Amino acid sequence: MKSHHSGAERRRRSSGPIIFAFFSILVLMLLRLGGKGPILSQIPAPYSDVLLHTLGVALVAAITLFIDRLIRHFYWDGYLRRKRNQETPALIEDIVTVLLFVTGISIGLYFEAGMSFAGIITAGGATAIVVGIALQNVIQDLFGGLSINFDGSYGIGDWLTIYSDQFPDSKFGRVSGINWRTTFLRLEDGRRLMVPNRIVTANPVLNHSKPVGPKRVSIELVLDMRFPADRAMSILLGEAFKGVRQPKLLRSPEPSVLITKLGQDAANYEVRFYIDPEEIEPAVAQSLMTEHIHGALLRHRLPSPAAQVELTQPPSGLREYGEEEVRDALSGVELFQDALSDGQIAALGAHCKVMDFARGQTFIRQGETTASMFIILEGAARVSVALPDSQSTDVAVLGAGEVVGEMSLMTGAPRTATVSAITPLRALEITKPPIEGLLKASPELLERFGRVLARRQLELSKLGEDKEEEFEDDLLSQMRAFFGRVFG
């Protein structure tokens, strides 16, 4: 609604000068043509001739102004802004206005006073030299603005970073306007920065909006040198794959992790991912991803380098997964959270196995009937489904803390998808025998497991809540049949 009102207001403002220019033409035409006799009879020569020539030049200027107003109303505002939703820099509009006006004045002077355009330039040459010396910065800004508009290096709406020794640090913002002297940037905090065009053209400028397409953003962090690099990269990359699921972060190109520097006590890592600057500001995207990375640092106890030189024990993150880490992983799974006590989780964890998979290794294949599930501890995995034409399509990317294969574990159903590691991956495998032991000791767990599985499958299949009871009963029947040694 606001943009509609502002567009209507703009049209009203642009129609006013058109009406004014039209009536000016009528008045000047009446005075120049209809008032020639009275002027010659009432005003002595040569003043009457000067007045008539002046009215003639003014008439041509009014016609030029009328044409310029029509161009602004129907082309700049009507066609580009309203129909094509393109914002034209004010500098371009002003250049067209000046060219039209100079052309009109030249035509008027030629016909009324016999003065050519070349004569006008010659007469103003000396003045131009003096003014040019006095207004060097203004002229530099002017030509800078002209070059910006004609070479198309950036335009209104583009995100720029401007580097200059005129600023204490680089300036990042979105171009909101370009005029004769200035480029206007809207900074991330909402303020408006006015940058002289000569500074823009004389210094490096990074355009984040061109060429159109994904732009890379990165997050840097420092870890203890003694923590294994392969594990650190696997953990960070898995969390990055989870992070790009958030709205406005791009899943393609895929995120990556690099080691950028090795020091005596620290290793520097860079997490790279991609965004569209038109959809989200880089600082906001970095904050969203940093939140995920911070969670991984805490969850996996990734150690920071020592703040001072001292003899310390190796960081705890160097040890393999122990009983506490396994219990934490099991406690975070929805299937077990509301169903198992601490003692039952400890008993289950004693029979689980930590598995390591290389990048690209497949550990679940569609159609197989193996009864196990995996909790991803570190890294990321891709879930894909085979199509009838022998092709496959990726349906999800799983990260640390997420599970896969629970339906096969609890019902014996064939695998519905193929799951492969897209980073070096560590996962906790849970097989059928320890689940049988839990059910044998506590048969009531079957209904708890069934309730959680039914709710999750309904969410994934997007079936209505009215189907929940029917679906849960069917699922419980499958589970009782699969664990027949316990309930037979």
What report would you give on this structure?
- With 488 residues, the protein is α+β, with helices and mostly antiparallel strands.
- The protein has four domains: 2-134, no CATH class; 154-207, SH3 type barrels (Roll), CATH 2.30.30; 215-299, Alpha-Beta Plaits (2-Layer Sandwich); 323-487, Jelly Rolls, CATH 2.60.120.10.
- It is 51% helix and 20% strand.
- It has helices at 2-34, 36-42, 47-83, 90-113, 117-134, 136-151, 197-202, 229-243, 282-299, 323-331, 334-337, 342-349, 406-411, 432-441, 445-461, 468-482, 484-487, and strands spanning 159-162, 171-178, 182-187, 192-196, 205-207, 215-224, 249-250, 256-262, 266-275, 353-357, 362-364, 372-378, 381-386, 392-398, 403-404, 418-421, 425-431.
- A hairpin with a 3-residue loop joins strand 2 and strand 3 (182-187).
- Helix 2 runs antiparallel to helix 3 (47-83), helix 3 (47-83) packs antiparallel against helix 4 (90-113) and helix 15 (445-461) packs across helix 16.
